[in-house]
Design goal:
alpha/beta; 434 Repressor (Amino-terminal Domain); Rossmann fold; 6-stranded parallel beta sheet; 6-stranded mixed beta sheet; 17% strand
Length: 332
């Protein structure tokens, strides 16, 4: 029962009645299927416009077996890097007529299972998986085209990653060139593959140069500032700091400022990701740039190839990274 003064939305039956045609004819016009005479098609389109009819997208997707919706699963929405990646993905998908349905897994298996259930309900065309998962078989059982970003799930699933080992090497080489003799490494949780790869490139290069290295493992989301400050204070002679994310680096800058240790004269600091905040702090943060636009573009291209039943070439794309030198390190 409708409330007084509240108008109901026009239905496909209303359009059919207005155009004096069958519901099946209206459906063929809306979905652009089957033959409809030019004059009849125009009558239906005029009725749709006059009534303000909006087709039910979910119903259309079930009919056409294509929703034009891509499901995106991220591990957390609160990190700046993932927010910037999300925006780029949405832009590239929109250019191809796709919408993005976003899910926050929060590293929770139960949440992930519920998300997979939604994918079946909404006839999702494809999946972009940024969150790390242990449910490889469950995703395969969905029979939905899937790619991963920021990690490699297995040899068969297409992936887009940046060269994290090279990123770690570039950071180490910059600290070595800056004359650092004792280096601190603030890393995200070491169980993440991205962190492990950055560590490998960084640690090997630093150790090869014979430089003292001290490491602390910190939370990926909302790292504890007190632990960071305590760690830096416990190494008063450290003259270089590498952080596995820009957010960790910003915390390090805050601690150094509080301790009245000049950056970069007393301590050089390097972050990772090159988020927008790097240029808004003083001193501006030297960092390793991950090409977010290129990652998003490559991810969308790979997923669309899968949707078209083609194999992306190459199956696993590794995007180059580069050092962005700013004020938190000395000029080489």
């Amino acid at each position: 029962m409708l409330l007084k003064g509240v108008m109901s939305m026009p239905t496909i039956k209303d359009v059919a009645k207005k155009a004096n045609v069958s519901v099946a004819t209206v459906s063929r016009v809306i979905n652009n299927t089957g033959y409809v005479q030019v004059e009849t098609r125009q009558m239906v389109l005029d009725a749709i416009t006059e009534l303000g009819y909006i087709p039910n997208e979910l119903a259309r997707s079930l009919f056409k077996k294509q929703s034009k919706i891509i499901g995106l699963i991220v591990p957390h929405l609160s990190t700046i890097f993932f927010a910037e990646l999300l925006e780029s993905l949405e832009d590239h998908l929109a250019r191809h007529g796709y919408k993005l349905m976003i899910f926050n897994a929060k590293d929770d298996i139960e949440r992930e299972n519920k998300i997979m259930h939604v994918f079946n309900q909404y006839n999702i065309d494809g999946i972009i998986l940024v969150a790390h998962t242990k449910q490889t078989k469950n995703y395969a059982d969905l029979h939905i085209p899937l790619i991963t970003i920021d990690h490699k799930m297995n040899e068969e699933t297409p992936s887009i990653t940046s060269d994290n080992q090279q990123g770690g090497r570039l950071a180490a080489e910059k600290l070595i060139a800056s004359g650092c003799k004792k280096v601190l490494h603030l890393q995200g949780p070491s169980f993440l593959l991205t962190v492990l790869n950055r560590n490998k490139g960084f640690n090997e290069t630093i150790e090869k140069a014979g430089i003292a290295l001290h490491t602390i493992d910190l939370a990926f989301v909302s790292p504890d500032y007190r632990l960071i400050e305590q760690f830096i204070r416990s190494h008063p002679d450290a003259d270089g700091i590498f952080c596995s994310t820009d957010i960790l680096a910003l915390h390090a800058l805050r601690a150094l400022h509080k301790m009245q240790r000049a950056v970069p004269d007393a301590v050089a600091v390097i972050g990772y990701d090159n988020v927008e905040l790097c240029e808004l702090v003083t001193p501006n943060l030297t960092t390793i740039d991950q090409p977010i636009e290129l990652i998003a573009e490559a991810a969308v291209a790979s997923l669309l190839a899968l949707i078209d039943k083609k194999t992306p070439e190459p199956l696993h794309k590794v995007m180059p990274v580069k050092l962005i030198e700013r004020e938190s390190t000395k000029k080489s």
